[in-house]
Amino acid sequence: MTSTTNDAFDRRGVLLSGFLPAALFAIGEGAIIPIIPIAADSLGASLAFAGFVAALILVGELIGDVPSGVVVGRIGERNAMMGAAVVSVVGLLVCVVSPSPWVLAVGVFLVGVSTAVFALARHAYMTTAIPLRIRARALSSLGGVFRFGYFVGPFVSAGVVHLTGTTQSAFWIHVVCCLAAAVVLLVLRDPATGVRGLRLPSRASRPDTTTAAPEATSRTAPVPHPDEPPTDTGAQFVEREATGLFRTIRDNRAVLARLGSGAALIGALRAGRQVILPLWAVSVGLDDSSAALVIGIAGAVDFALFYTSGQIMDRWGRLASALPCMLGLAISYFLLAWSGHLDARVGWFVAIAIAMSLANGVGSGILMTLGADLAPRGNPAPFLGAWRFTGDFGSAAAPLVISGVTAVASLALASGVMGVLGLVGAGILLRYVPRYLPRQLR
User: Fold this and answer.
1) Pick from 47, 102, 57, 110: which is nearest to 83 by CA?
2) Which residues have C-beta within 8 Å of that of residue 161, sequence separation ≥ 6?
3) Which of 252, 289, 320, 395 lies 20 to 30 Å (CA to CA) from residue 206?
4) 191 and 9 Cβ atoms separated by less than 8 Å
5) What's the rounded Cα separation, in Å, for the pair 437 and 44?
6) Helices 169-187 & 77-97, crossing angle to 10 degrees?
7) Which residues contact 417 (CB under 8 A, 6 or more apart)?
8) 80-94, pLDDT tens digit by residue?
9) What is the DSSP string of 159-174?
10) Is 39 within 8 Å of 92 (Cβ atoms)?
11) What is the C-alpha separation between 423 and 428, in angstroms, rounded?
12) At what angle do helices 345-362 and 306-316 cross, to 10 degrees?
């Protein structure tokens, strides 16, 4: 197969089979996230419990990250995405009919777990379907698709709630999006296997590519030829099922402990940005609409850079994206802490919010790309589940760190602590990316 053929194959087939379901799922999830605490409040929940219910979608994702690797490894990526969409619909229907905040919490948790399975399956699917030479651009674009969905979803939700007059109607948006994503996966051909619909991996559907390029790292996974999507044989799939989650984690414990800690810090700095910017806007005296405008503009800057990040990684290596991202975020946190006492602190806040978004945008897709690079070629899903857990753990921990330091000291000190963590993360990436990635990917 020529390079031109591969390009056309991937850009058309993966665009529909990979990006379209992801966009639909993201729009649906984006539609319900701002509605969850409002729905809990309408059912009589206290403000604190409403916040707890809203957090359960992230808790469900975190808990679902690791076991989702087993599910995807056993039934295949497309089947797992379709199954996750169905489970999400069940959780959403529970939310719609919930008579109390506790029942709503169960539904939200189910949605979170199914989101973890869908995200992991989508990640593994793109890892096996995309040629190595355009992997970073494809995965960064995938991240951009989800950011687009989270941006569009709340507007769709606002319109539907306004028309229907009930917050529960927003959950139906995600139901429709999940069913549409499942239908897309069911009727379109899988560009990696050439088949449609539900199909367990087999010898016939997973051709042999054991003639890939020789090893370039200290790990056991060979690096595939840049023009060939990495796949495995039917015999290797049988081994996938037998290997299991815990053996995969044990075999890869060194990279998960070392580079995984860097991934956790990337997730922490990104999530911390979403928490600290609104708090800082309040502290410098911005009104709600002005704060929302500044953060919205910053988000648009972040979104605009997703493809640029992929180009940087594919052309100059992963560190060319990861290090500017971490260092830029760390410096921005330090500047934020320093600017609090200045007379022009509002102007500094606007500039720093934009700078944070530039830094974050340059690193768009870095976690998915590193995970795809590091995952064992014959059995990516269990490793990717553990890898995603590290990033999500950092994302979940960051708001707790910021709130805890702010409670015992100040918001400025919390920003400084996040800056220090960013420098630590940059050092970890600089130390271990060259150790675990082949030279052409560093």
Assistant:
1) 110
2) 35, 167, 169, 170
3) 252
4) yes
5) 52
6) 160
7) 401, 405
8) 999 999 999 999 999
9) HHHHHHS-TTHHHHHH
10) no
11) 9
12) 50
**Are the C-beta atoms of 442 and 317 separated by less than 8 Å?**
yes
Q: Which two tokens stand for residue 184?
A: 């897309």
Find out whether 390 and 264 touch, Cβ atoms under 8 Å.
yes
CA atoms of 291 and 274, how far apart (whole Å): 12
CA angle 176, 23, 359 (to 5 degrees): 145
Residue with tokens 């030279």: 439
CB distance 321 to 362 below 8 Å: yes
Residue 212: predicted pLDDT: 35
Q: Among all chains, which residue has been given the structure tokens 């948790």? A: 109
| Angle, vertex CA 107, rays to CA 60 and CA 147, nearest 5 | 55
Contact of 98 with 107, CB cutoff 8 Å: yes
346: its two tokens: 């509002």
Q: Exposed, middle or buried, 93 (CB in 10 Å: 0-12/13-18/19+)?
A: middle
Query: Within 13 Å and on the Cβ side, how many CA atoms surround 294?
Result: 24
Please report where in the chains the tokens 């984006």 appear, as a residue: 30
- At a CB cut-off of 8 Å and minimum separation 6, what does 402 contact? 272, 275, 276, 279, 411, 414, 418
User: 189 forms bridges with which residues in the sheet?
Assistant: 196
Q: Report the amino acid identity of residue 193.
A: T
> Which among 392, 366, 398 has a CA at the least distance from the CA of 65?
392
Q: What is the pLDDT of residue 319?
A: 94
Give the tens place of pLDDT for each residue, 280-308: 888 888 887 788 788 888 888 888 898 99
CA distance 351 to 438: 37
